[in-house]
């Protein structure tokens, strides 16, 4: 397999993982499973409500940092990184 094909397969795999996490947190936890999650309380708040209001935002911000750090590592592994001057 070519170097570029390996890079893009790894890149697509990483994007797929991030999008699946995004979907689970925003759509499943925030909309579909909200009633089931509301039976669990954390610090007095229903978990479904927490995910819908602010928990998903925390996860999204964490995903941004996770994606950036993994892409930096992936770029270096495949020698397509920008030079740090």
What is the element layout, followed by pairings?
Elements: H1 3-32, H2 34-37, E1 41-42, E2 45-46, H3 47-77
Antiparallel strand pairs: 1-2
Helix pairs in contact: 1-3
Features:
85 residues, mainly alpha, two-stranded antiparallel ribbon, elongated
Give a quick rundown of the structure.
The chain is mainly α and 85 residues long. 76% of the residues lie in helices and 5% in strands. The protein is built from 3 helices and 2 strands.
Question: Helical proportion?
Answer: over 70%
Biggest β-sheet: strands ordered side by side in the sheet = 1-2
Order of helices and strands: HHEEH
Count up the helices.
Answer: 3
Strand portion = under 5%
Multimerization state? single chain
Mean of the pLDDT scores? Answer: 89
Overall spatial form: elongated
| Secondary-structure-derived class | mainly alpha
- Biggest β-sheet strands, sense, barrel: 2 strands, antiparallel
- Total strands: the figure is 2
Number of domains: 1
Q: CA-to-CA gap between the ends?
A: 31 Å
How much is the radius of gyration in Å?
Answer: 17 Å
Q: Can you tell me the residue ranges where pLDDT is under 50 for at least 5 consecutive residues?
A: none
What does this structure look like?
With 85 residues, the protein is mainly alpha-helical. The protein has one domain (13-77). It is 76% helix and 5% strand. It is built from 3 helices and 2 strands, in the order ααββα. A two-stranded antiparallel sheet has the order 1-2. A hairpin with a 2-residue loop joins strand 1 and strand 2. Helix 1 runs antiparallel to helix 3 (47-77). The two termini are 31 Å apart.
């Amino acid at each position: 397999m070519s170097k570029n094909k390996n890079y893009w397969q790894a890149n697509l795999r990483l994007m797929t993982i991030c999008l699946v996490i995004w979907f689970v947190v925003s759509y499943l936890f925030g909309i579909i499973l909200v009633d089931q999650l509301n039976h669990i309380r954390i610090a007095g708040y229903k978990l479904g409500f927490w995910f819908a209001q602010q928990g998903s935002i925390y996860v999204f911000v964490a995903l941004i940092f996770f994606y950036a750090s993994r892409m930096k590592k992936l770029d270096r592994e495949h020698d397509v990184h920008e030079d740090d001057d």
